[in-house]
Amino acid sequence: MAAILGCIADDFTGATDLAGLLGRSGMRVSLRIGVPSEPPRDTAPLEVIALKSRAAPLPEAIEQTRAALRWLKAAGAQRYFLKYCSTFDSTAGGNIGPAAEALMSDLGIEQTVYCPAFPENGRSVYMGNLFVGQQPLAESPMRDHPLTPMRDSNLMRLLKPQVQGAVGLVDRITVAQGEQAIRKALEALATQNIAHVVMDAIDNADLERIAGACRDMPLVTGGSALAMALPALYRSEGLISGDAAPPSAPPLARATVVLSGSCSDMTNRQVERYIRQGAPSYRIDPLEVAANGPDAVFRWLAEQELNKAPIIYATAEPAEVKHVQSKMGAVRAGALIEETLASCAVAAREAGARRFIVAGGETSGAVTQALGASQLDVGAEIAPGVPWTYCRSARYPIALALKSGNFGAEGFFTDAQTVLEGK
Ligand SMILES: Nc1ncnc2c1ncn2[C@@H]1O[C@H](COP(=O)(O)OP(=O)(O)O)[C@@H](O)[C@H]1O
Ligand SMILES: O=C(O)[C@@H](O)C(=O)COP(=O)(O)O
């Protein structure tokens, strides 16, 4: 079946989040890792391409985004969705606005919308300001993110320096009035040449109204919760029909490894809890690895019983991250840790691991690419926005849980194992 909705996600945890939420519709979702080198075949109505473009240098991010669009067009997609983080993560240069503008130019359109709200995970947008739970974004732990520290909560201010076109807002008062009011507001903004429109949303009903109003826009941008509302609209229009049986996990040995490169507040708590529960653990010290190489961690891993699901982590509190970054630079530290965890994943697979639980978007990108995955099936949801995924195309069948830094409960690493075992 030809693709209907073509989605481009700027990181891997974001892509599995999106694929999982789209999959709730019961329609078939296909998740590709990177832009496939082959022309489209065996396409699903809902296609997602996972990129590692969020923190990439701008020209590379744009190149990847455009290539993804070309592939999705060839797959038959009629509408497109650009997925970024529900906390609008972007570097100081910012890749979200330029990626959206590149897609708009390639699609020949003058306006798109931006809505990162993800109410189930506590992200809401009000008067253009993004909240994480009760805190404005810039007062939340996201202010200390190692690669994309978010120091402003206002989406219009964040977007403005990233784009050439003008930025506007459709606020909650209008959104609450329904689809027609939203459409009218967008038309009024279009007459003022407002190309980039931030949309307020505080709950899923708001997102459904926005999705309804924007259903004919060639390009919509936002978080996974906005995209979640689209399949039902396509079904009601007769663009998609039928249900897909949820893919089941391939038979997998129990051997598991947990790899954590996220330094988010929630991941810090999850790692601490997992270690307190008795999991075998190894802490990567980035300065030590920079000085002496990664052999010590590989030696430790080789001695582990993988049925005990050991954890290797670089996860650290903000003060420790700052200390490391002051010695070796944020980009170099991030890349070194991602490389080390990716090599650990490959070593663990060679030692028999078939289940990989990974915390962190950039980290997940590095690990998934190193494992050679090219397409993932989306399986059971462990927590909102975090499904298990199954890779049948790698050298061995494996299961991967790619956890966004901020998602999941404190017991996530054991929750993931319980869900996979169907307990
Ligand atoms: N101790 C540390 N010091 C400096 N950087 C770190 C440390 N631990 C992890 N990192 C880097 O921080 C970044 C975290 O990003 P990511 O994996 O996307 O996590 P999240 O999902 O929380 O955003 C990665 O590039 C990772 O390599
Ligand atoms: O929208 C979200 O919050 C997630 O899907 C996401 O993008 C995850 O990014 P990381 O927190 O960097 O893993």
From TrEMBL:
Belongs to the four-carbon acid sugar kinase family. Its EC number is 2.7.1.217. The gene is otnK. Keywords: ATP-binding, Carbohydrate metabolism, Kinase, Nucleotide-binding, Transferase. It catalyses: 3-dehydro-L-erythronate + ATP = 3-dehydro-4-O-phospho-L-erythronate + ADP + H(+); 3-dehydro-D-erythronate + ATP = 3-dehydro-4-O-phospho-D-erythronate + ADP + H(+). Catalyzes the ATP-dependent phosphorylation of 3-oxo-tetronate to 3-oxo-tetronate 4-phosphate. Residues 257-413 form the Four-carbon acid sugar kinase nucleotide binding domain. Residues 5-230 form the Four-carbon acid sugar kinase N-terminal domain. GO terms for molecular function: kinase activity. InterPro entries: 4-carb_acid_sugar_kinase_N, 4-carb_acid_sugar_kinase_N_sf, NBD_C, NBD_C_sf, OtnK. Pfam families: NBD_C, SBD_N. It comes from Nitratireductor kimnyeongensis. This is 3-oxo-tetronate kinase. It comes from the Bacteria.
